[in-house]
Write a structure and sequence with these properties.
The structure holds 2 protein chains of 2 kinds.
Chain A lengths: L4 E10 L2 E11 L4 E5 L6 H8 L7 E6 L8 H6 L1 E4 L11 H11 L4 H14 L15 H13 L5 E5 L7 H17 L3 E6 L2 H7 L2 E6 L2 E6 L1 H6 L5 E7 L3 H6 L7 E8 L2 E7 L3 H13 L3 E7 L4 H15 L1
Parallel strand pairs in A: 3-7, 3-8, 5-6, 6-7
Antiparallel strand pairs in A: 1-2, 1-4, 8-9, 10-12, 10-13, 11-12
Chain B lengths: L1 H15 L2 H24 L8 H30 L2 H6 L5 H33 L12 H28 L3 H10 L2 H9 L8 H25 L2 H9 L1
The chains are: A alpha/beta, B mainly alpha.
Amino acid sequence: MDAAISCHGLGRSFGPRSAVSDLDLTVEHGAVFGFLGPNGAGKTTTVRMMLGLLPPSTGRIRVLGLDPIKQGEALRARTGVVLDQVGLYDRLTAWQNLDFAARVAHISAPARRKKIQESLERVELLDRKNDRVSGFSKGMRQKLGLARALLSNPELLILDEPTSGLDPANIKMVRELILSLAKEGGRTIFMCTHHLDEAQRICTQVGIIRSGHLVALGSPEELGAGKVGHQIRIRATHLTPAEAHSTHWGDGVAVLSATEGKEELILEMDVPSEQATEVVVTAMVRQGAGVREVTPLRQSLEDVYLEIVQGDEDHE
Amino acid sequence: MNDLGTMLWKEFTEFFGNRRSLRVFGLAIILMAVLPIFIASKSNHVTAAVLPIFMLIYVNFAALITTAQTGTDSVLHERASHTLETLLATRLPDRVLFGGKVLATVILGYLSAIVTLALQEVGLNLFGKAHGIIGFQSTVNVLLFLVAPLLLTAYLATVAVFVGLRVSDQRSAYLLTMVSILVLALPVILHLVHLHLTLSWVRSAILVVLILDIVLVRLGIALFRRDRLVLYLQD
């Protein structure tokens, strides 16, 4: 079975400026994919190519097994979208906005009514169904946008910054909604976001794009795990900071910090592998130190992201 | 056809749900219906022979005002509220998006012409300036009253949609669209001295505008493409 989204060598240029280049990406069916990157990294251009709104300059893209340019109509019929600007009709009511989306999706009149009712209930906007959208808050708009995207029960849901500009209560509500959609299964979710904790919590797979290039791809654990095992924290007794720094603990082992705590020394160390941790602990015990606890220093997705993005800025 | 109906439903629901659009629509009709009645009641020079020409001018003005306003507003509002990109992300084909916008604008423009004409007829009869329906005594007038507004609105609606895509404020878009009517008016003005509204002249003029409309609409369908529109939005 084809992947939900597959790009090979995908690129898009605007004149001399390259927005996306040589993008290789595979998103499996049912995955919740987080697409991360700073502003101007190429996220929106990638989304537009996925939807068949922009033809790629180079490479190949297939979404739900279809060519977005040649089979755009069929593809968009199977895709729900919430763009960074939700794009609701201010002059229409919440019900009319969904009614239009349902008509576009060719949902029959009796089913339409039921579906709109259910969708509005799901996003807790049923009591505002006859209100014009012009009076809606950002959070309500975002929820209505999600309801609209889900109306046709799409196989692929593309969300561009779904919680951007929302207050904490609405962020929680939208996240829970996305999580519940992810748990329902059978639907692929492709989400562009700046909220790294959101990606870590919701996404099964994450890609980081920087200056049009995909620089990291994997599950949030895998991306963090790239660093796990390389850094450890040890709580040791009968050891001074000077001893900690001067002792050779093994090949490739470096002491990053040694802080005195309550009757113990807290060491943060770089180790070349998981096996090297054993070597370090053995060496400490042999030296007469007591080892209370050894914990891997797990980097959050945010740490990984900032390392990559700031690395880029330093490079520039 | 179903998709075109959906687009029309959306355009009309938006139009009739917007007080500003309705105000312009109503004002254009009332003003253009009242003016020939007012002129006819104040001037002794407006004879029964000249009156249909006055009526015709104002009927077409009503259609043009409504068309220029509605056509540009429908696109500019989509751009301002970021619904155009969302619309492009739907399964609706490009030609339906374009056709829906143009057709809705033409229907509203033509509707304003017909309502204006009806009000003029009623008003002139009420004020004793006419007895019965006037202006339909000849085939020329029938063509001018019923077909000319339709062809003019089709021309202007197509122009308005494209002006709305490129110009960023409503006033400029409206004025630019109205100025585009000069393309049609210029040959008429240049030949004003020799202008005789004979049936053959009117038929020829209608044929020319019809051909122009067909060319414009075909050009519109060819140019109104998602990949181009996304670049407009990006600009």
